[in-house]
Amino acid sequence: MTPGKKEAIPLNASHIISKKISDGSRLVVVLNVNKHPFEIINYGSVKNPAFETINDAGEPLEIQWFNDSYIEIPVWKN
C-alpha cells in the first residue's frame, strides 16, 4: 500500500454468515484481523513475515472510508 493513495482491499478469503432479511433492512459489516497464535502477521517490513516481530512494524495502518467506498455483498435471489 502507498500512503495517501486509494487502494482496493480484496476480502475474498473472508467468512460470510448469511441470513434472510426483509427488503429495506440495514446491513452491518464487521472487519477485523485474525490475531491468534496460528496466524502470521505481516508488519510491512521487507522481511519474510514469518520472521518479523512487532519491532519491525512501522507507523500504524489507518484505513479511511470515502464517500465512494463500497463493499460488494453477494445476494442470492429465488
Detailed description of the structure:
The chain is largely without helices or strands and 78 residues long. It is 0% helix and 0% strand. The protein has no helix or strand. The N and C termini lie far apart (39 Å). The model has no long low-confidence stretch (mean pLDDT 79).
Radius of gyration, in angstroms, nearest whole number: 17 Å
What is the straight-line distance between the termini? Answer: 39 Å
Q: What structural category arises from helix and sheet content?
A: little secondary structure
| Most strands sheet | none
Average pLDDT score: 79
Low-confidence runs of at least 5 consecutive residues: none
Shape: elongated
Count of individual helical segments: 0
Question: What count of domains describes the coordinates?
Answer: 1
Considering DSSP H and I runs of 4 or more, what fraction of the residues is helical?
under 10%
Report the sheet-strand fraction: under 5%
Number of strands: 0
